[in-house]
Design goal:
Length: about 525
């Protein structure tokens, strides 16, 4: 077994993570659905890499993400910190301290479930009734009171928390709120504030204990998938956590995604604030990158205006939108980690190119490069493998989700790992593994510049679009992610009711194109690490 433990630290990281786990949940459900596309039943994926078996206090079997999520207190919305499968008690601070002075209590009314969570709860109650009473769904005869269209519309207009659209069930050890940090997220916006707020408490020890719970039950952990919102005060919290991981799990690689929503890049009219933001970026990147094997910056200043959104309809002001696109790409990058490894002469009809976290790290940062910073590119949806110039257009459609990178760089020493999911071929049919490999080989043969080494992973299974996925597809995207000849009339965007799955191409690359990003941080790092605390 090659388990991965996922960590999500910070608000936007949890928005991304919520979509990520929705994709996994959708894959699991489609694999069991007799009416689903056969490609979802033959995924050739080992979902145990990201999931763990367990049981409730009543002995009911569970299958939950191997996850530790960290966020501010009050960030879970209507969800209990004990998750949804286990009995949740009252929310009390995790540590008790003797104090004979005045006590101030801050509390809020429990947030009411939205339509999506209500329907999810109702469906689970009906399933429980069906199982316990030995009746079929038809005999149960219950009517669905809320339409999917009502659910999608409410989510589009009223997502405040990442739990508002989460389908996944979580273990009680997975959801950790930083008790005592009832802080306005707009003020929790730099390295110094986060460091001062986090120091002197028991949070670090409690987080390490929860992480240890998940690691110790692994047979052979292959790595940590660490997603951090590094735009503000969560950076020093992640640094403290990473230092603990480095001490306790020395030989376990950390693949770190430093994610940011577009709102974090808005320029302030205040010169002081602009300088503070630049210092934060420099110190945060310097500390985080020193504690992982590979760091991948993710988050464009304006995703909606980028070339990556050519076929998308994204609203930058909505974390619910932007995080969905980034999560789709992270899901794609993670696919080789749960592919079943094959022997040198074996072939698979459904997946090819299995890798471990350590192998990806070695491809991108090992050998002579010693580059710990990778660029993340994506094509969403990926183009069909049809047409006279598909090889050239396929590579051109891969656009960076990493900020501040050079577009036209001839790096003859670059290396990369590319992943293609659910590619469409002639007539809208799923392209075979062989067809995708042949296309990629030809594309690189005819490219003006090509990497010195490229690893390709391919899966026939596309990205499934779950119901709570936002309406971010343009009106030329078809039901299976194909590009329509004419736009759909009546709406500028399409969502889960119209688009059921899409092909995705993602790429991690180590290239000198990342130099502008590095230069903008390294020139401020030296001698300024104490400035943020003044």
């Amino acid at each position: 077994m090659r388990e991965i433990v996922t960590l999500q630290v910070g608000g936007f990281a949890n928005f991304v993570g919520s979509h990520f786990w929705n994709f996994q949940n959708e894959l699991l459900e489609l694999a069991e659905d007799p009416e689903a596309d056969a490609v979802f039943k033959n995924q050739a994926l080992n979902m145990d890499v990201f999931y763990r078996y367990g049981e409730t206090h009543q002995g009911v079997p569970t299958y939950t993400p191997r996850l530790l999520s960290v966020d501010l207190q009050g960030s879970l919305g209507s969800m209990s910190s004990s998750g949804t499968l286990y009995d949740g008690g009252s929310s009390v601070p995790s540590s008790v301290m003797t104090w004979d002075g005045n006590v101030s209590t801050q509390s809020s009314e429990p947030r009411r479930r939205n339509l999506f969570l209500q329907s999810l709860y109702q469906e689970e109650q009906e399933n429980t009734f069906t199982v316990e009473n030995g009746v079929s769904g038809a005999e149960n005869g219950s009517q669905k009171e809320v339409s999917d269209r009502d659910i999608v519309e409410q989510l589009e207009n009223d997502v405040q928390y990442w739990t508002d659209y989460s389908k996944a069930h979580y273990h009680p050890q997975s959801l950790y709120e930083l008790s005592g940090l009832w802080i306005d997220t707009h003020k929790f916006d730099n390295y110094g504030i986060g460091r001062d707020s986090f120091s002197g408490g028991l949070h670090g020890e409690e987080m390490s204990d929860r992480l240890r719970f998940f690691v110790e039950e692994c047979d052979h952990i292959q790595g940590f998938q660490f997603i951090v919102d590094d735009s503000g005060g969560f950076s020093p919290i992640a640094v403290d956590f990473l230092e603990s991981i480095a001490d306790e799990y020395t030989n376990v690689p950390v693949l770190l995604y430093a994610v940011r929503g577009p709102g974090s890049a808005i320029d302030s009219i205040s010169q002081k604030h602009r300088v503070s933001r630049k210092l934060h970026d420099a110190v945060s990147f310097s500390r985080l990158s020193s504690l992982c094997k590979l760091i991948v910056p993710v988050g464009l200043p304006s995703l909606s205006k980028s070339k990556a959104s050519r076929l998308l309809c994204i609203k930058d002001e909505k974390p619910y939108h932007c995080s969905a696109a980034y999560a789709a790409t992270l899901h794609s990058v993670s696919m080789p980690f749960r592919m079943e490894p094959l022997g040198p002469s074996a072939n698979s009809t459904y997946a090819s190119g299995a890798l471990t976290v350590n192998e990806v790290v070695q491809i991108l940062s090992g050998q002579a490069r010693q580059n710990m910073v990778a660029i993340l590119d994506a094509a969403m949806p990926a183009p069909s493998l049809t047409g006279n110039q598909v090889e050239q257009t396929f590579l051109r459609n891969l656009q960076p989700l990493t900020p501040e990178v050079s577009e036209h760089v001839e790096d003859l020493q670059s290396v990369e790992s590319m992943i293609v999911l659910g590619a469409l071929g002639t007539g809208g049919q799923r392209a075979s593994i062989h067809e995708v490999k042949s296309m990629a080989h030809t594309a690189y043969e005819h490219a003006i510049t090509r990497p010195i080494f490229s690893h390709l992973s391919v899966a026939q299974c596309p990205l499934p679009i779950p119901l709570p996925f936002p309406s971010i597809f343009g009106n030329r995207v078809g039901q299976h992610g194909e590009l329509l000849g004419t736009p759909v009339i009546g709406s500028s965007s399409r969502g889960s009711l119209d688009v059921h799955s899409i092909p995705v191409a993602a790429r991690l690359r180590s290239s000198s194109a990342v130099l502008p990003f590095l230069e903008n941080r390294f020139r401020l790092t030296s001698g300024n690490q104490d400035c943020l605390s003044r």
